[in-house]
């Protein structure tokens, strides 16, 4: 590799007969019995709770005699088993969080204390994979990351920032070239400690992002030991990059370390609600995930560091048999690449609390649903990856959870639809009401258990934050946290039926052969026009209208009251898209202390610099200086990569 005296990858690998590389010592390290116990501690209670729900449902309502009743019962048990799994993840994570350092992996403990000074033992490329993105926004973030690396000290030779462009559009690629020239001139003015910033463009984007990264490994991988994979909307501090590189140096069996990149930096009401919700509810589930998976982690595609030789030699993606959408090129490639690394014996680790790493998210409901449509097809493709030889059980579990995460939505829609029909015919809510209108102890016990598992994730997450003065302050204080959480829950009640109906449709259309286009995402704060909202959500409005008619003619006021939130949510879905895409409402909520996170109450310098570059149009390093005027340039496309 790049350091001939102490090449990390060469010291830590041995090559198999087929050219694949493994950690020295061959094969996965034996997992201690404690990991088996940790996994049983999650699986056992989940299965027991699901069995208890099934038993209580039978005791409360008996074994149905009709196909409709049996179908509703079956759907109810399956869905509540999934909800039980979610609830136990949060309880598991809550207990692990209360254990403090005792629940942390050695890698996590080391990450908290490791120096951010470069050792000179390795070289890393922070690769930013882009395709028809906004070049000005991309290079603004790169400036921030370069400046952050400079602040951490060193001469800048240990980490390069490498832009990997797959852009084919001539106008956009011209702006990329222009912005690259500007940033080179800027880095030269900044002086010592700046990382080298490089750029290359493919005009044939074979294999999409996975092919882009693979081509980099083949062409430039010999120059580096590690690569930090970043998306166009990623941001990472120089300290985080250096910590990751040093952790890889110290852990030669580790092929990949995944960080948690929290959504930040967007100001529509929808984006602010989502940023708040992820910050509030993700930590406990992530703590659970890291605790039970250990070295059998997964790869999320960005904001992670990989050992280049291990990745290049072991993570080549197969082409799935059959035609798209389930066959052909693997679209959601990251989790498969992580599974292939793990199959070769490399540890795949998660750092759930390292910090200093962010991403952005869709800023309105329409764009989020579009992304979910793409991810749905990508995850359903993994049905054909599951039988692949040699994959570890944990890797198959990661793949399976991704598949099930989408497949539950058609089950929910079927349960709500058939359950409403059954309730309209019988005059009782039955299982669609979770047993609340039952007249016996079994029904009341069922209702209590179901409500508990539905509420537990959010209650535990709130309790975890409220128990710490620092965490409360990060969310703007107790009052701000509780009001924001209540509003988020109310808005979620309206958003969930729309998202569930859309995801159910995405699953069904994928299974019948509809192929989705993977175009560049809209990443800016974008307001949704009324016409677009009605055009794209007319099916939700129609479904809401049909449900409202059914409720009106059911003759059951309790059923109408129980299902009214779903009908209202579907009927008002275009209005939800329009109003929640408002930046004015988003900034207004922030001004009133709502939906605050630590990125608002104690923002990192990198976030402030990036925000300044967007609002003032200045280079973040200058903070008061001026930038060169923007001048479009014209270049010719070539079939060979462009490199600087």
TrEMBL record:
Keyword Transferase assigned to the entry: answer is yes
- Give the residue spans that cross the bilayer: 40-61, 73-100, 397-421, 441-460, 481-508, 540-561
The signal peptide, as residue positions, is none
InterPro entries cross-referenced by the UniProt entry = Glyco_trans_2-like (IPR001173), Glycosyltr_2/OpgH_subfam (IPR050321), Nucleotide-diphossugar_trans (IPR029044)
Principal localization reads membrane
> What UniProt keywords are attached to this protein's entry?
Cell inner membrane, Cell membrane, Glycosyltransferase, Membrane, Transferase, Transmembrane, Transmembrane helix
User: Is-annotated flag, keyword Ligase?
Assistant: no
Q: List the pathway annotation.
A: Glycan metabolism; osmoregulated periplasmic glucan (OPG) biosynthesis
Give the record's membrane topology. Answer: Multi-pass membrane protein
Domain Glycosyltransferase 2-like: start-end pairs? 228-418
Q: Where in the cell is it found?
A: Cell inner membrane
Instruction: Outline the segment boundaries, as ranges, of region: Disordered.
Output: 1-32
Q: Which family does it belong to?
A: Belongs to the glycosyltransferase 2 family. OpgH subfamily.
Q: What is the protein name for this chain? A: Glucans biosynthesis glucosyltransferase H
Organism field: Methylorubrum aminovorans
Gene that this sequence comes from: opgH
